[in-house]
Specification:
- The complex is a heterodimer.
- By secondary structure, chain A is α+β, with helices and mostly antiparallel strands.
- Chain A is 33% helix and 31% strand.
- Chain A has a five-stranded mixed barrel with strand order 2-4-5-7-6.
- The longest helix of chain A is centred in the N-terminal third of the chain and has 33 residues.
- Chain A starts with a helix and ends with a helix.
- The mean pLDDT of chain A is 78.
- The model of chain B has no long low-confidence stretch (mean pLDDT 87).
- The chains are: A alpha+beta, B alpha+beta.
- Chains A and B meet through helix 1, strand 1 and strand 3 of A and helix 13, strand 1, helix 14, strand 2 and strand 8 of B.
Chain lengths: 139, 625
């Protein structure tokens, strides 16, 4: 009777262990696949090779660069050292305007062109994403 | 004047704490009757915090700009309603609200726990006072809502316009009742552990508090979600934003605790687990406050980036965690374990399995929320974790979760076997066929979606059947589970069948798709007291001949100078149609987003059903007494 109980407990504990290991493995693996890295135009220029992973680019919207057409919106993100052209078809947030900070999420076509799938909303005019602030201040 | 009264009652409130602690310690070993003074002082403390809170509200109502909180977050042209709600729409005021709920709950606890052992009541009060003192000091030292500006400015800076909204005005108080309500569970669990009082009676008693916090937390999250849906203009209701995650984590812990307490109440097993969950719930609420308030997470909830505040909460949080670990390790005795074993096929097992799954969901969300923060600290690499991560890790595991939820309540305690196997199997087949029929046209992820819909439908039918044949053992449980199946179904259908059009249009232009045409008719201007509105007029001609007129707005607030878009939403039982427009600087084109979102209203409604189940449970218990 006692032996059975110990056995049961062993099975129970190993079951927990296996579940734990499995879930940690799953979580880490899918983290690797699904995270989005943030980069400034300067960092993109220095990029070794371009893969088709989603990234975020942050900086200022360059003055007089926004061009709206019926299908898409083109503009330029600059960190005052380098710039990148963004083509985007989708909804723009309220505070998207020239000379203001912006974060665009999407896929790199080449080092000078980002095909954006999302432009991130900001909640107030004084708020600047910390990434952008840092990129602009020049690390 | 109101500020001054508010400030001094806050200080006096802190002094009350010391008197309460003194009397409680005195009372602890001496007498079998609770010293009346303790109840009086607890009430006095609550009353003083109320006075302080009203002092702040009055300063907001009369736009007293000598008060820096009012100056920073209010404006004379703001409507009265939002002047009042602005009280908790900022860091200082919202912490005062925390304190208000903390003192309210401990007072209610003292009134309600008269049948409980006196030592347990006193010790719970003492632990709660530790938290209360911590928050008093935090508020007075780092975030005083009553600090003085001289000379008084003529005009305030105004409240962020997207916070000027009825749902968001009541979202913080409701959410806090749930969030902070879990402090009572924490204190009571620590007290029960210290006194070795973790018993069926304790479970019965603490379950009410778990239910109360759980209901408010559920409703609070619902309100926030509804607000995000119509105000942020994205048309989604959940973004897996870190700030949302920190409210979902305590909810998951609380839901797990609720089920665990049920087992404890009936069978006196899982005692350690219940204590760990009680501690975890409040710890998660506190960590949420830390993450949101410290400025680490950037969002609409981040009111100020003051490192001193973050540090204070962090130190306070860790002291509480160490205190609870210490108490748990040194006082907790796990007795009578061998007496209460159970067979693998039983209600206990079903609940345990669901407990595990919920813990898994919790850890996924926890890692997804804090991993980017750690990575940034360690390697200064900046990443964000988006919805795909959560969808991939959570959705597949919902399948066994839902099935266990459907079968579990049908099992008996200790040892069970399934009656009406054929019946249950029949329902499974029906659900499977129905779900294949519903999503037959879907090309991507057909398999996962079919199985997901099947398991949700299965839970839906089984709970529905119990209502219909009036053979309900447990009405509240059945109702909440029914609500949950409805929630998952609505979310799934909403995800699968949503469609959206994003386009840029000039006034007078139209956009044509297979099912409908969007005509951009005209633009109007309207001047309100604190904003200017640009109102677009859109006609949606559907192919079946029906025409809908939608009028989304752009609002340009004058103080602070912010543009917001107000979506126009037409809701019916089957679907919402949702339109927002936006103007890009110096361009003729308006950016238009038109969405058809099926079953939106059912998402909100099902969450109401879930919390209503909890409400019934509370009243049922009152009835039994």
């Amino acid at each position: 009777m006692y032996g059975r109980k110990v056995k049961l407990r062993l099975v129970f504990i190993s079951l927990i262990l296996v579940t734990l290991i499995l879930s940690v493995y799953l979580i880490i693996k899918s983290l690797e696949e699904n995270v989005v890295y943030f980069q400034s135009p300067t960092e993109i220029k220095a990029l070794g090779e371009i893969n088709n992973k989603k990234i975020r680019v942050g900086g200022m919207v360059k003055k007089n660069s926004i061009l709206v057409e019926s299908k898409d919106i083109k503009f330029v993100i600059t960190d005052f050292k380098n710039e990148i052209i963004v083509i985007y078809s989708g909804a723009v947030p309220n505070l998207f305007s020239e000379g203001k900070g912006v974060v665009a999420e999407g896929f790199l076509n080449d080092r000078k062109l980002l095909l954006a799938t999302k432009i991130l909303a900001k909640h107030d005019e004084n708020y600047m994403p910390p990434e952008v602030k840092e990129a602009l201040e020049g690390k | 004047m109101a500020s001054l009264i508010g400030y001094y009652s806050l200080i006096t409130g802190l002094l009350c704490s010391f008197l309460i602690i003194f009397f409680s310690l005195n009372n602890f070993n001496r007498s079998d009757i609770l010293n009346k003074k303790i109840v009086y002082f607890t009430f006095l403390q609550f009353f003083l915090v109320v006075v302080s809170f009203f002092g702040l509200i009055l300063s907001f109502v009369f736009s007293d700009f000598t008060n820096s909180t009012v100056f920073n977050h209010s404006h004379t042209t703001k409507p009265l309603f939002y002047k009042i709600s602005g009280t908790w729409g900022n860091h200082e005021g919202s912490l005062l609200l925390w304190l208000l709920v903390l003192t309210l709950f401990i007072f209610l606890f003292l009134l309600e726990s008269k049948r409980q052992p006196i030592k347990y009541r006193l010790l719970t009060l003492l632990f709660q006072q530790i938290i209360i003192v911590g928050f008093f000091v935090f508020i007075i030292k780092t975030s005083n809502p009553f600090s003085y500006i001289f000379p008084a400015p003529k005009e305030g800076l105004g409240l962020n316009p997207i916070l000027q909204d009825p749902a968001l005005a009541i979202h913080p108080p409701i959410l806090y009742l749930g969030y902070v309500g879990s402090s009572i569970i924490f204190s009571s669990a620590l007290a029960a552990t210290t006194l070795n009082y973790v018993s069926k009676e304790w479970a019965k008693h603490v379950k009410q508090w778990v239910l109360v916090s759980w209901i408010f937390l559920t409703l609070g999250i619902l309100l926030g979600s509804i607000w995000a849906y119509y105000e942020l203009g994205w048309g989604g209701f959940w973004f897996w934003d870190p700030v949302e995650n920190v409210s979902l984590m305590p909810w998951l812990a609380l839901t797990t605790l609720l089920h665990c307490i049920l087992v404890l109440e009936k069978r006196l097993i899982l005692t350690s687990w219940a204590i760990i969950l009680s501690i975890a719930t409040f710890t998660l609420s506190m960590s949420g406050t830390f993450l949101v308030r410290s400025g680490i997470l950037n969002s609409v909830h981040t009111f100020a980036n003051d490192p001193e505040r973050g540090l204070f909460i962090l130190i306070f949080l860790f002291s509480l965690i160490f205190l609870s670990i210490f108490i748990f390790l040194f006082f907790h005795k796990n007795e009578n374990k061998s007496k209460n074993s159970f067979f693998w096929f039983s209600k206990e097992t079903a609940i345990l399995i669901n407990n595990w799954f919920m813990m898994y969901f919790l850890s996924v969300i926890l890692i997804g929320t804090i991993y980017p923060i750690f990575l940034e600290v360690l390697s200064s690499e900046k990443i964000s974790v988006g919805p795909p991560f959560y969808n991939k890790l959570i959705l597949p595991f919902l399948i066994p979760f839902l099935l266990a939820m459907a079968i579990g309540p049908k099992l008996n305690w200790i040892k069970s076997d399934l009656k009406n196997k054929a019946n249950l199997f029949l329902f499974l087949i029906i659900s499977l066929l129905l779900s294949i029929f519903i999503i037959r046209n879907l090309s991507i992820n057909f398999l996962v979606n079919t199985i997901l819909v099947t398991s949700a439908l299965y839970l839906f039918f089984l709970t529905l059947r119990d209502f219909l044949i009036m053979k309900i053992k447990n009405l509240s449980q059945n109702l909440s589970h029914f609500g949950f199946s409805l929630l998952i179904l609505s979310i799934l259908f909403n995800n699968i069948f949503s469609s959206e059009i994003i386009t840029n249009l000039k006034i007078g232009e139209s956009f044509q798709s297979k099912q409908f045409t969007i005509n951009f008719k005209s633009v109007d201007q309207k001047n309100e007291r604190n904003f200017k509105a640009i109102i677009g007029k859109f006609e949606i001609e559907n192919n079946d001949g029906t025409v809908e007129v939608l009028k989304p707005e752009l609002r340009i607030y004058n103080q602070p100078n912010i543009v917001t878009s107000e979506a126009d939403i037409k809701t019916n039982l089957i679907r919402d149609i949702f339109i927002t427009m936006n103007l890009v600087q110096n361009q003729e084109y308006f950016n238009i987003r038109y969405q058809i979102k099926p079953f939106m209203i059912w998402i909100w409604f099902s969450v109401l059903i879930i919390s209503f189940g909890g409400l019934i449970s509370i009243f049922k218990r009152k009835h039994e007494h």
